[in-house]
C-alpha cells in the first residue's frame, strides 16, 4: 500500500514537473513590444562584421530573421529587397539575419548565404547568427520573422514583431502591408497600430 | 391530347426547377464549406479554408484528437510523421484520431503533397489548409502559437493542449495518454 502511494506520488511529481518544463519552454521568451533590443555583432556575407551601432544615421531598423532554405522565406525575398529599397534611404534599413544551425541546414551555410545574396542582389547585410545567440534574445521562432526597431535615447526599442504582410502566396493580392504600415507610422512619429502579427514559418533549426 | 401536352410541359418545368434547385444547393454548399476534393494520382485531398477547417478543432465526441500541422517542405515535420502514424495505428481503436493538416503550398498539392502521401502510404487522415490570412487564423488555433511548424494540438472535448515543437514517439504517446486516462 505504502509503495503504491509512493508510486502515485512519484508519478504525480513527474507529471507536474514535466508539464511545468513544457510550459516554461513554450512561453514566449525574448523581446516584447517596448523592450530595448541589445546590439549584436555578426558576420556579413562580405566577411565584415556588422552591428547596429555602425548605422550612425539610421532612425531604426527592419530586422528580418530569414534563410535560404525555408520556402516561406524564399517567397518573401523579393519583398524584403523591396522593403530595403523603400526604407533604407528613409532611415530604416533592412538587417537580415540567418538564425539556423548550419549543421542541421547545410543549405544555410555562409557560402550558400553568399551565393543567395549575390544571385538575388541583396543590398542589405545578410548576417550569420553564428553560435545562435542573437535570435533567442529577440525570441524569434521562425523564418521569416520581422522585428522593427526604433532608435531612441534609451536604445533600439522594439516597435513591431511579426509578418511582412498578409499574403505569402501572392504579393499582388496583399491587403495589409504590416511592416510598411509600421515603418510609415514610425517615420511620422505616430504609434504603430498593429504591433504584432502572426504567420506560418519554418521553425528555426537548432 | 392538349391536356397531355400541358401535363408533360408541367412535368418538364417542374423537373427543370428541381435541377435548378439542386445546383443552387451544391453551390451554396461549396461556398459555405469551400471544401473541394481534388482528385489526381488516386489521392483524394480535402482542401479547407480556415472557416471550414475550424470544425476539426471543436469536435466534442469524447474522442482524443491529435491535430498535427505540417508540410512536406518542413524537415522536422517529416521526421516526426512516422510517430503520428504509429500513434494512429496503435491507438485508433482506443478512441484516438490523428489528423495531419498540411500547410503545403496549393500549387504543389499535385506535384509534391499527393505523391508524398502516396509514397509514404500515410494512413492517418490528411487534409490541406489553404488560407493566406494567417494573422487571423493562427491565434484561433492557439493564441500562444507564433506560427512555426511543426505544431500539434491534442484535445478531448473542452480539454486542449497546444505544442509548438517536435515530438519523439514516446513524448507524443505520453501526451496522448494524459488525455486517455
From TrEMBL, chain A:
MF terms in GO: antioxidant activity; oxidoreductase activity
Naturally occurring in which organism (per UniProt): Flavivirga aquatica
Domain of life: Bacteria
Pfam families the record matches: AhpC-TSA
InterPro entries per the UniProt record, alphabetical: AhpC/TSA (IPR000866), PRX-like1 (IPR047262), Thioredoxin-like_sf (IPR036249), Thioredoxin_domain (IPR013766)
UniProt cross-references to Gene3D superfamilies, sorted A to Z: Glutaredoxin
Protein name, entry field: Redoxin
Domain (Thioredoxin) ranges: 31-188
UniProt cross-references to PANTHER family, sorted A to Z: OS07G0260300 PROTEIN, THIOREDOXIN-DEPENDENT PEROXIREDOXIN
TrEMBL record, chain B:
PANTHER family assigned to the protein according to its UniProt record, in alphabetical order: THIOL:DISULFIDE INTERCHANGE PROTEIN DSBE (PTHR42852), THIOREDOXIN-LIKE PROTEIN HI_1115 (PTHR42852:SF17)
Biological processes per GO annotation: cytochrome complex assembly
Keywords, ordered alphabetically: Cytochrome c-type biogenesis, Redox-active center
Name recorded for this polypeptide: Thioredoxin
Cleaved signal peptide residues: none
One GO MF term attached to the UniProt entry: oxidoreductase activity
Compartment(s): Cell envelope
Domain of life assignment: Bacteria
One Gene Ontology cellular component annotation held by this UniProt entry: cell envelope
SUPFAM superfamilies assigned: Thioredoxin-like
Coiled coil keyword on record: no
Residue stretches making up the Thioredoxin domain: 34-181
